[in-house]
């Protein structure tokens, strides 16, 4: 439920180590809501989200489960006044890790911009920075909301590559997207429109 309205119903998905789920569906169909529920930002009004058989919302489990998750969304949480490198290292330090930030930036094609202020980055470069952060933090479950928006063709290929590599290590990936993405052996779930339109776009055009 969101705002007292039922957004998602009758969804049953089971993920194992190394698996990937691609969520698609029209605007407002609930893709972000689905990811938010997995992340524990929203509670399902019915049903359960289980992690290793335990309800993720129960005390004790939630704190552990949260540490497995890496969230990437349109809100990029990039600090414009910090350098590109600091924007990755800051999260790495918070995570109690170190040493992967520069390699992650290099992989995402941002090595030469590491010492620039993040405000200098283009939209696609900001997305690459988010992906570098994902790599540096290196948590097992990735929740990616529209990860390819603003990426160029090479950026999308890199995204597909890091997803494949993550899965090889046993990582789990959820991707909500409107854009085509190639993820081998992924499951796909297409959410239905919440409010089916009475008229199609072409009907509207012809009525003018
Ligand atoms: N902040 C909010 N508060 C209350 N209801 C919300 C909020 N954000 C979204 N919703 C409701 O949840 C529904 C699903 O939204 P959600 O963002 O999950 O869809 P989506 O499939 O990710 O859409 P899009 O493709 O546009 O990103 C929306 O139709 C809206 O009614």
From TrEMBL:
GO terms for molecular function: ATP binding; ATP hydrolysis activity; transmembrane transporter activity. SUPFAM superfamilies: P-loop containing nucleoside triphosphate hydrolases (SSF52540). Gene3D superfamilies: P-loop containing nucleotide triphosphate hydrolases. InterPro entries: AAA+_ATPase, ABC_transporter-like_ATP-bd, ABC_transptr_haem_export_CcmA, P-loop_NTPase. Keywords: ATP-binding, Cytochrome c-type biogenesis, Membrane, Nucleotide-binding, Translocase, Transport. Residues 1-208 form the ABC transporter domain. The keyword Nucleotide-binding applies. It holds the Pfam family ABC_tran. PANTHER family: ABC TRANSPORTER I FAMILY MEMBER 1. This is ABC transporter domain-containing protein. It comes from Canna indica (Indian-shot). The lineage of its organism: Eukaryota, Viridiplantae, Streptophyta, Embryophyta, Tracheophyta.
């Amino acid at each position: 439920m969101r705002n007292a309205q039922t957004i998602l119903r009758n969804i049953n998905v089971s993920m194992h180590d190394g698996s990937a789920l691609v969520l698609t569906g029209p605007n407002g169909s609930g893709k972000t809501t689905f990811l938010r529920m997995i992340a524990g930002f929203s509670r399902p009004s019915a049903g359960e989200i289980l992690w290793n058989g335990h309800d993720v919302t129960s005390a004790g489990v939630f704190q552990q489960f949260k540490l497995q998750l890496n969230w990437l969304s349109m809100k990029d949480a990039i600090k414009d006044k910090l350098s590109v490198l600091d924007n990755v290292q800051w999260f790495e330090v918070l995570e109690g890790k170190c040493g992967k930030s520069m390699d992650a930036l290099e992989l995402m094609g941002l090595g030469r911009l590491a010492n620039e202020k993040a405000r200098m980055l283009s939209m696609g470069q900001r997305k690459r920075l988010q992906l570098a952060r994902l790599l540096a933090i290196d948590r097992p479950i990735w929740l990616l909301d529209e990860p390819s928006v603003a990426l160029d063709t090479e950026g999308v290929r890199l995204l597909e590559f890091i997803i494949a590599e993550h899965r090889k290590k046993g990582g789990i990936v959820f991707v909500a997207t409107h854009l085509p993405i190639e993820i081998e052996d992924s499951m796909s779930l297409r959410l239905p429109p919440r409010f089916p339109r009475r008229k199609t776009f072409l009907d509207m055009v012809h009525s003018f």
